[in-house]
Prior knowledge:
Helices cover 69% and strands 9% of the residues. By secondary structure, the chain is α/β, with parallel strands linked by helices.
Amino acid sequence: MPLSEERFRVLPEPQAASVRWVFAGSWRLSDRLPQAAELIAFAAESKAEGTTISLDGQQLNAWDSGFAVLIRGLIQQLQAEGVQLDFSALPDGLRRLLHLAAQGEPPDAPHAEANTGFIHRLGLLTLEIGADMRAFARFIGELLQATGEALRGKGSFRARDFWSIVEQCGPQAFGIVSLISFLVGLILAYMGAAQLARFGAQVYIADLVGIGMVREIGALMTGIVVAGRSGAAFAAQLGTMQVNEEIDAYRTAGMAPMRYLVLPRMLALILMMPLLTIYASVMGILAGLSVAVLVFGLDATAYFSQTVETLSLTDFGVGLAKSCVYGAMVALAGCLRGMQCGRSAQSVGEAATSAVVTGILLIVVTASMLTIVFYKLGI
């Protein structure tokens, strides 16, 4: 609504050096209120000047919060110019709002500069790591409690939900696991062949690729792929449920989210990781076989026989044990970050990213620890 003298007038007061700004009619957001600068410019055209301005709202028919914000901005601009103001003619409700707004303003004293020194940042990082470790330990405790209750028959998740998660974690990941494992096997074969060719021992490419894929690389690469795929998916799913308040609804209905949402994801990933690891190892061995036969001219039967003779059940056991641990770490990271997610869409993205980083970090740490443990045990 355009600004006109019917809605806004500037009248000189009988007293010297004083004018009265009169607001009339409706001043609501739906009336397309003007800016404070427009009012000041409009008043300047009236040629009525004074060091004191009286704001008069006695002729208002309707006003809302938009008018209060407009008056607040107008007051700030006029006071900055040194103009004296009189609010006594404004509606009582509006004067109370202005009084509350004035009380809520921050103090004029400057804030102390933030400490950004190295020691300060190191302290904050230490506190953050400590809080993460406490949250991780609490999450594991709650998960173990939920597992114990489920084993005692105190409610359980639906089998249909569980198998749906299994399908997402397993068969749907075959494509990316095949590609990564085949390429890693290819790299191992070429690297090994470059060294073994000096001694005419290319047939031992089978030993290098077979043991490497079955004991270490197969489980490690599968864990990293699953962390980027299933771990992020778990965090996004649970984070979205946090945003939609579905997890709150679970708690209100007496259904523990740990038992119905986290536990099936944990079990599904621990179940599928060994199968994916075996599949990844086979793909890596096939890649090594391709390089040995097509590039270095080895006999496929000899390569296969050498692989069978080299590998033992212990190698498979070590690889499968590691895959179960990696699966548990990925599921823990994904579910933990999902349950810690905030209430916004941005928080869901941050939770998914954090789940991937945390999952890969846990895989690397546990891989190092397990390698040392198996070495000490002579396995």
